[in-house]
Fold these 2 entries.
Entry 1:
Amino acid sequence: MAALTSGPASGGNGFREGARDALRWLVERGPGPLTGAAGGAPVTATAVVRELAAAQELAYGPPSPGRDYAAGLEHALMWACLATPAPPPTSAPARPPSTTRTTDVPVLHERSSR
């Protein structure tokens, strides 16, 4: 988290901010960074899946202002869950077009209980 917090204050690096917020959420708990869903202690697998689904919807959907933030959040959560070997980079990687996926991990969708 220190590497993601160092550097210029904010500065519009949504990727780094998303990654930092994801890791901070896992440690400090509270509402999910994207969904705002109330969380307990410890953060449950269901809560992580919910945040990943929200992040993937933004990151791989149509271009939007929150796309880099969502990509950083997704990367950090995947790394924390041991689904990817590398920690989040301190700057945003080059983004492929929204129709291109760069991971072999399937998009997660939460099933509605309704």
Entry 2:
Amino acid sequence: MMKDAPNALRTVFATLLIVLPLSASAETPGSTSGEPKPFSWMAIAPDAGEACRVPRPPADLAETAYLRNGYRAILRILVAERHLKAETCDCLLGEFTWGMALAELPRFQTSDNPRLPFKVLDLYAMADALEAEHAEGCSE
């Protein structure tokens, strides 16, 4: 049985060498171009409702994900507040910039620690509540 192990391993390895490149260049069932599709082609298109969703912040906005997530939550709050104030269901996200979120930091700051200037979970809760209130107003 031990004599067959190297042969079995060679067989598995040879199969993987053949199958993996084929699966990497596989096309979707409806395509006929004969060319492999780039990975980005496989991305799922966002729902229409997500067109007004605050995107992930750029990596150069802050050095840590904690800070970037906080700035994203602040921007979500600003957008939702504007929606509620304007009493509109139109997407106003295009009127906002990351610089605006940074400028509003003092309003949301809970600590003098530059690495933890706010509580991200509290910001998320505030943003979720405002967005829910806006969604409820738009569904009526």
